[in-house]
């Protein structure tokens, strides 16, 4: 969807002639009461579920959650996934041409915030004729967007579904993000953000940034169970030898091999400027700062019903952060459903199969569906 009208950003910058890439699943009903917006996390996109006929391996990032008969059932709901501005999967971002210069934006692409993304999503909803969503849902950074929707457009969603998220990043989280950004910024191939013109990619920086991030998405227990201190086998005189150190700075341990594989893969498809933009948007999100840090006051104008879920081993966005949101909502007498799930997978648990988690989301959306049917019959 192309937008000619300028978008005023929180930074004071203005984005002109931009486009948003989006996908939809299911069928919008006659009164448009069954629409659900799914907001994506850091390295995801508009491609939420299913796969393309010409690319069957490209499965949507939340395919276990969204689809026919799944917890967010597309036989019932009309689901929309939107790629955020500044991303590298179709929506206008640093690699696209700046209308003012005809060259890629590069480092000149304006810094965007969670609130900027939500404002753009609302404009897309306007174009689609959707005045109110049955629910806005997201995990991690997507959960921040869902929470922002409830604050910025309280009349435009009936339910807010926030999974493994937080009302603001801790100092430790900001620190991890900055170290990851420094890995990119100090890569010689970054070229001040204008590497497109030189035909290079700061792969080493991206690789290290992803390795740092990936460590924080896993729990210690999960990492220990998957990898422990297992050594990579070495070959001596044509024979595999196990349990020996290489006495160098290459790959000795399986965890090192795994992280480097993840980093290499990430550097092949993700954009360095996008990584900088999205992690900065994570850092900046703190809606309560406009209310002297009072989250209850920040959420006082919300009108949605809320579902929140957290995972016990998620040390990046810990259950304590979700409980802060729950407490602030209860102070405002909002209807809140909260689940704290004992799962071993760390932050990544929100993307994985867990029967308790999936069944809770399914049950909640069944309640949302019953409300939709009542609206249709009214």
Automatic annotation (TrEMBL):
This protein's major location comes to cytoplasm
What keywords were assigned to this record?
Answer: Acyltransferase, Amino-acid biosynthesis, Cytoplasm, Methionine biosynthesis, Transferase
Instruction: Work out whether the entry's keyword set contains Calcium.
Output: no
Please report the stretch or stretches of sequence annotated as the AB hydrolase-1 domain. 34-353
Swiss-Prot/TrEMBL catalytic activity: L-homoserine + succinyl-CoA = O-succinyl-L-homoserine + CoA
Q: What is annotated as the active site?
A: 140, 314, 347
SUPFAM superfamilies reported in the protein's UniProt record: alpha/beta-Hydrolases
- Report whether Ribonucleoprotein shows up as a keyword of the record: no
Q: Where does substrate bind?
A: 210, 348
Pathway(s) annotated for this protein in UniProt: Amino-acid biosynthesis; L-methionine biosynthesis via de novo pathway; O-succinyl-L-homoserine from L-homoserine: step 1/1
Q: What EC number(s) does the entry state?
A: 2.3.1.46
- Looking at the UniProt record, the site noted as Important for acyl-CoA specificity sits at 316
Q: Name one Pfam family in it.
A: Abhydrolase_1
Where does it live in the cell? Cytoplasm
Superkingdom of this entry's organism?
A: Bacteria
Q: Describe its function.
A: Transfers a succinyl group from succinyl-CoA to L-homoserine, forming succinyl-L-homoserine.
Q: How does it assemble?
A: Homodimer.
In the record, the note on similarity to other proteins reads: Belongs to the AB hydrolase superfamily. MetX family.
- Protein's recorded name: Homoserine O-succinyltransferase
